[in-house]
Amino acid sequence: MRHAVTLLALIAVVVSLVVLQDARRGLTIESFAVGQTPVTRYARQGADGPVVVVAHGFAGSRQMLQGYSLPLAQAGYRVFAFDFQGHGRNPVPMSGDVTALDGTTQRLVDQTAAVIDAVANGGPVALLGHSMATDVLVRVARGRDDIGPVVLLSAFSQAIDATHPKDLLLVTGAGEPGLKGFAVEAAQMVDPGAVAGETVTAGDVTRRAVIAPWVEHVSILHSRRGRAEAVAWIDRAYGRTSDVAIRHTGWAILGLLGGIVALFGAVARVLPVTPVAAMPPTLALSQRRLAVVTLVPVVVAPVVSVLVDPQGLPVLVAGYLALHLAVFGLLQLWLIRRWGGRWGAFSPLAFVLLLGWSVVFGVALDRYAANFWPVAQRVWIIAAMALGAVPFMLADALLTHGASLRRRFVLRGGFILSLGIAVALNPFELFFLVMIAPVVLLFYAVFGTMGRMAGRRAGPLAAGLALGLVLAWALGVSFPLFRA
C-alpha cells in the first residue's frame, strides 16, 4: 500500500509539472523593477501584441495571477504583472488610511499608474485585476485616456458607473453570492435587461458579466471559463483572434503540491524508528482534560492579547498574532507538563528533513502559485513570529501525537474559534484575522500531515519545532507589510 501511494504521488507530480510547464512553453519570463515595484514580463519571443497590465488582490502576489498572465502571453500579448506595495516581494509597505479613498487606495492607484507609464508602448493598455485590484484599476482607468479593455475578477467598485469603464468584462465565481449580483448590476447599468453571459452595448460602452461555474474567490484564478472569457474579451477589443489552449493549471497545482506532501511519506522512511522507550506515549486525555486544554487557551489567549494589544511589527495583525500564538501554545505546554506529558527525544535528522521538504514545497508554490520567499524586510518579522509559532506548534505536535482525527479536529478547531473571539473583541483592528483562518487550515492540511509522518517515526519534538519555524515563515510572507 505504501509503495502504491508513493507511485501515485510521483505520477501526480510528474503529470502536474508537464501541464504547468506546458502553460509556460515558448514564453520569455523575466523580472525587473519599476522604482521599487517588482514586475514580471510574460511574452512570446518577438511578441508585438498590445500591453496587458495584471494586478493581484489583497494578500496576493504576481504569481497568483499566472493563470491569466500565461494564456494572454501565449495569445501574443505582452503581459506585465506586478506586486502591490506590501505584497509579494515589494519591500515598500502599504500605508495610509485603508478606509479613505485618498489614503491607501490612492497610493495603490499611483503605483499602478507608474507601472503603466513604464511599460506602455504608446497604444491602449489593457488592464486585468482580481478582488482588491478591481477597484484600483477602475480608478486608474478613469484618470487616463490610454486604457483599452478592462477585465475584473471578483469585482466590487463604487467607481463603476454607466459610462465607465467603457470596455468592461466582469468575471465572478458561482461561489461568490454577493459579487455575482454586483457583476450583473454593472452590466445592467448599460442595459437594464442584461443577464449573465450577455454582452450589452450602449453608445461606446460595452459590458459583459460572466458567472464562472464551480469556483469561488480564490479558485477563480484558475477558472478555465474565466480565462477563456478574458482572452476572448481582450481579443475582441483589439480585433485579434487567438487559438490558445487553456490548461488545467488549477488542478495541476493541487496535484503537484499534494504529490509533494504525499512523497514525504517515502522520504520520512529514511528516519530510524525511535525506540518505544524513548517515544513519548500518546497523552491520555479524559473528556474533561481535553475540554480544559482546548477551551482555556481559547478564552485566555484572545483576552490577554487584546488587552496587551502589541504593536511594532509592520505586518497587518502580526504583532497581535505572535502574542496570541505564544499565549495559546504556552498555556497548552504548561498543562501538558502539569499532567505528566513527555516531549521525548529530539531527532536532528527529522528536524532537517522536515525543514528541507518544506523548502521543496515552497519552491514549487513560489514558482507556480503564490509568493513564498521573503524580502529582507520580512526576515526579522518571521523571527518575531517564531517566538509565538514555535511554542504553539510544539504544543500542537505533543497533543496530536498518535491522536485520533476527532481529537485533532477539536484541538485545532479551538484555535480557529479563539481567532473568532479576538475579532469579536476588537473587530476594527483585528478584522484581518478572519483571513488567517484559511491559511492556518491549509497549514494543518499540508505541513501538519508531513509533521505526523515524521512524528510517527521520530517523535513529536522535532516535528513541532520544525513546523513552528515553517508556520512563522508562512505567516510572515502571507500578509501585507503595512505602515500607518
From TrEMBL:
Q: Which domain of life is it from?
A: Bacteria
Name of one Pfam family that matches: Hydrolase_4
Q: Where would one find coiled-coil regions in this protein?
A: none
Keywords of the record: Aminopeptidase, Hydrolase, Membrane, Protease, Transmembrane, Transmembrane helix
Transmembrane ranges, per UniProt, are 251-278, 314-336, 343-365, 377-397, 409-425, 431-449, 461-482
Any idea where the Serine aminopeptidase S33 domain is? 51-158
What molecular function terms (GO) are annotated for this protein? aminopeptidase activity
Q: Tell me what this protein is called.
A: Serine aminopeptidase, S33
Which species expresses this protein natively? Loktanella atrilutea
